[in-house]
């Protein structure tokens, strides 16, 4: 839903624009519209009252996307207003990889790995508190509403409480790196949706592929790593990331009513060593 202030800004930015298609996901308070304006197509994203993704997406556009936009592999920001929770970008042609046969093509994953390496490689910062904050976040999620069984909650809580919190190096990460956020056009992969972009360890962008696409297709993992150029997943840090992601998936999906994704979170917990 577009709020009144957002409508005013759209009328100011693109007077007379017409809505071509609604691409909204439906589970979160983000409206995604394809517009026709001045003989071109645009994408508009508008957040609801509780939205915090638009601000992160705007930050990514303004500070981190040059390695992709310079190649024409990500949309370019046209207008943005963080207070109004609204942004507009150029339109990229193509289809979501998830909806095409390219989702099983190693070449798709090689390109995705190469693009991710470009993104991760642009800057890095040391952070002494990241691991502590992530541990505390997981413990808060376990304290909140979910359907993880009590015995598992006790086990996870005891385990996380005993983890060390060493300094780590953080880089710009996409935060939802998987085929539903990749476009393909004439065999070329591009990237969309930066609402979860943030500074994190490199390997956190591997997690969703690992628990979904790589499970039964080691050839896709091999192609992805070939494109990326290395495998940054140190065993202990990777295990901690798997635990946090499993908890986060089960809790977030329960909160928004996505039972399929919630089941994935519970499977991820069950598959932890």
TrEMBL record:
Membrane spanning residue stretches: none
Gene3D superfamilies the UniProt entry points to: 3.90.1200.10
InterPro entries (alphabetical): Aminoglycoside_PTrfase, Kinase-like_dom_sf
Protein name listed in UniProt: Phosphotransferase enzyme family protein
GO molecular function, one term: transferase activity
Keywords in alphabetical order: Transferase
Annotated Aminoglycoside phosphotransferase domain residues: 54-238
């Amino acid at each position: 839903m577009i709020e009144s202030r957002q409508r005013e800004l759209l009328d100011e930015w693109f007077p007379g624009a017409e809505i071509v298609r609604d691409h909204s996901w439906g589970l979160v308070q983000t409206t995604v519209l394809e517009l026709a304006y001045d003989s071109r197509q645009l994408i508009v994203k508008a957040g609801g009252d509780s939205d915090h993704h638009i601000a992160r997406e705007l930050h990514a556009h303004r500070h981190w996307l040059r390695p992709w936009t310079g190649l024409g592999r990500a949309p370019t920001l046209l207008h943005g207003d963080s207070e109004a929770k609204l942004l507009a970008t150029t339109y990229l042609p193509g289809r979501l990889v998830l909806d095409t046969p390219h989702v099983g093509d190693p070449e798709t994953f090689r390109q995705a790995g190469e693009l991710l390496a470009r993104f991760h490689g642009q800057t890095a910062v040391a952070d002494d508190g990241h691991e502590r904050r992530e541990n505390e976040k997981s413990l808060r999620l376990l304290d909140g509403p979910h359907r993880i069984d009590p015995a598992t909650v006790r086990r996870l809580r005891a385990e996380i409480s005993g983890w060390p919190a060493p300094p780590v190096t953080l880089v710009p990460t996409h935060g939802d790196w998987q085929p539903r956020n990749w476009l393909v056009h004439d065999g070329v992969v591009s990237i969309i949706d930066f609402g979860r972009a943030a500074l994190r360890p490199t390997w956190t962008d591997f997690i969703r592929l690992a628990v979904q696409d790589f499970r039964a297709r080691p050839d896709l993992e091999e192609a992805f790593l070939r494109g990326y150029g290395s495998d940054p997943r140190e065993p202990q840090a990777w295990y901690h990331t798997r635990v946090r992601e499993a908890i986060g998936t089960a809790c977030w999906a329960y909160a928004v009513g996505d039972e399929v994704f919630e089941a994935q979170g519970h499977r991820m917990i069950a598959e932890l060593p």
